[in-house]
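Q: Two folds, back to back.
A: First:
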Amino acid sequence: MKIIEYTLGLPPYRRGGLPRYSTDLSTELAKNNEVYLLYPGQINPFSKKIVLKKKKVKYAFSVIEMQNPLPVSLGLGTIDEEKYMEERDITALKRFVEKVNPDVVHFHTFMGVPKVFLDYLNQAKIRVVYTTHDFYGLCPKMLADNPKELLRSSKCSYTCMLCNIGPSFKKIVIMQSHAYEYLKNSAVVKKLRSNGKAKVSQVAGEETDPKVLDNEEVEKRYRLRKYYFEMYQKVDFFHFNSSVSKKYVKEFIPTAKGKVILITHSGLSDNRNKSEYVPNTPVRLGYVGSYDPKKGFFLYTRILQKLEGKEDFRAEFYGDVVESSVFADKHFVNRGVVPSEKLTEAYRNFDVLVVPSLCHETFGFVVLEALLQGTPCLVSKNVGSQDLVPSEWIFADEDELDKKLSDILTSSRMLISMNNKVKTLKLKYSMQDHASEILRNVYWVIKHEV
């Protein structure tokens, strides 16, 4: 088959599950298919003409940078909304599609994509697939009877990726530039990013006063949400990467056609039977993710602080550049961002991994990774990878998590039982098998629809 994959970019410049998955999927598909990976690149603020540049890469698939896309906010929120709906000359995209003549165009995000491209694909009768890595563009305020009234406030749910006051267009132009791409992992830029995130951490999850927006801003925000909603309606088939993502998308588009297929990434192996489990003393609790409110970081640390003095434990945190005051606590250890092999080792050493997200997470690779190392996971009901674990490991709120942690910390027998349970779980993790399933149950299905 001929397949175009649209994604945010390639690792290591773009981090996270979305770029990792789309890159690994493209790698696997390219073994027997003609694959082109397209991503939003640098912006010339003085041009509205999309330009495509083929990149020299080590991969077996072709990589094309789409220059002069719409802004990519990376879920930081929006401002200058009109920039996200600007017209674009997509002549280059049309010529590219006509030359490739793809069987399917598979979107992993709509960030940077002009709606007119979706219009063109629909008119050309080229099938469009969308994988629900996040809910960018779907604001819950639009489900209310009075969305414009609610849009007066910049405050929204933790899941919304639009309502926060985001970076200016000028800043996004810098963030999408080639210079920033090369300097992103330099010591200076890392320090600036850490300082910026630390400011968020210092509020320790406290509520801040939302910004009240004027009528003009409300109208722009309303139009932007309608713009994205129209894009979602142009999708022929949704690849829901969890039951959570299916349920959430269906709230906005009840007629959405698709299939739930849990995702994975390359390089995983099943190590659940490599060694016999012996509980740690003290119990080692793991957390992997960003240190911010939407991930449940402050809720989780607040529970642990209440348990101090009652139970003996050591809480280890991985996944962020922030140095929070929370880590002054003697029971907490901040490991920061580490290479994947170090994280794999950490999974093996945890007694339990805790995933307390308050936002809706469409999947969450950390759960699959931990389970494959034999580590049980306590998972919020908002996390898509709850599909992998027994119902008794899923919690609905702070009280339930508090209770489950208390029970675990007072019973080594429960820890042993949970560890034994992990070994019985049926976990699909082969990227080769997953790519075959996407081909068979997504691409071929929609290609042969009448």
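A: Second:
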Amino acid sequence: MKILIKNAWILTMNDQMEQFEHGYLVVEDTKILEVGAMDSLPQDVKYDKCMDAKRAILLPGMVNTHTHIGMIPFRSLGDDYPDRLRRFLFPLENECMNEQLAYTSGKYAIAEMQLAGVTAFFDMYYFEQQLAEAAEEMHSRALLAETVIDSVTVDVAEPMGGLQYAERFLPKWQGHSMVQASVAPHAPYSNTIEVLQQVDKLSLKYKVPWMMHVSEMDFEMAKYRDQHNQTPIEFLEKIGVLSSRLVAAHCIHLSDHDIELLKKYDVKVAHCIGANTKSAKGVARVRDLLAAGVTVGLGTDGPSSGNTLDLFSQMRLFANFHKTYLQDRSAFPAEEIVKLATIEGAKVLGMQEHIGSIEVGKQADFILVETDSVNMFPIFDAYSALVYSANASNVSDVFIAGKQVVTNKELVNFNVTQLRAELAEAMEQCGFKSKALEAMEGK
């Protein structure tokens, strides 16, 4: 099928950062066939479908580099408690999380992301086989990594059992056009050296990125300083697991030497400004990372950590926090922030040859942000409008691999009300709400 989208303000996000204020895009099947200015649009070509963008901003689909989509049930639970993780999340996870709850949560989370213009994401949680099935069903582009941790979890019966789960999970999705399987040790401090090295080898064998929380927690920094006289990143170099396949989530606490090592080994960083600041952990040194040539993308973290799964909120928070932290209004121009949400995120996932920019031959993953709403006028700079004015509700249309999954701000093949009902039923069946309320009451 050949589709024409005309009268769009196109931000290509290519190396030259080309934009066509009055542009058109042609998609054939799964790929981008043409992009250019309206005055160069051939007049004698027939299309199977023609769509008038009506001056909407067209840009690549956004890439969420770090999240936990199975955790929708935990959203808004104990947000302001200092020991929220141990008081609420871990106990409820152990009591209630199961295959059905993870699956229905995954579908609901993907719906939220698609409606917000997120077309690809890197997930780290449990029951990743069910989450992969959810991603395939929702027609989303996804990297899904099974968590490995030194304790019994909801889907494995022995500590570090996530590694064996991943060994079974990875080959099932080899060669899939949209979904890739991966593996994710929770953190350096919650895994053994041997497990971390095995994960690195598994990632190399299947040629997929792997993910881990790194340099996020104060106690983590103290542990490696006191026990090894090193930072966590220096420790990871010593044991030989730093590489271009590692996506290090958070990286809030970095030394100059850490940044040098991240660049040396081409480690990618998933920056989650919303979750990092909500939990009062700090503001990562992103300007220094980018100046050193480290690849950084934006992530939301899980829906219990950052509460929303859209990157519009992350872009705004990124701008506000980093400008304030640096005391520099000119830091991070809007176009640089949009890059972090698109092409740089694609680089973090190792998908930059296929997605992340509007270029001929790439996969047709793109979104339209309407400019008719009250908050979208006037527009002098499209990048500024996306970062400072727009929100997820301005996303009108979403295409993934040439297939439209959102039209006129609604899912094409799914109903949000139905997805919510399915998730609510799964929560009810495992007693999630009643147990959550008991925990909130301190019982």
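Q: And?
A: The longest helix spans residues 99-115.
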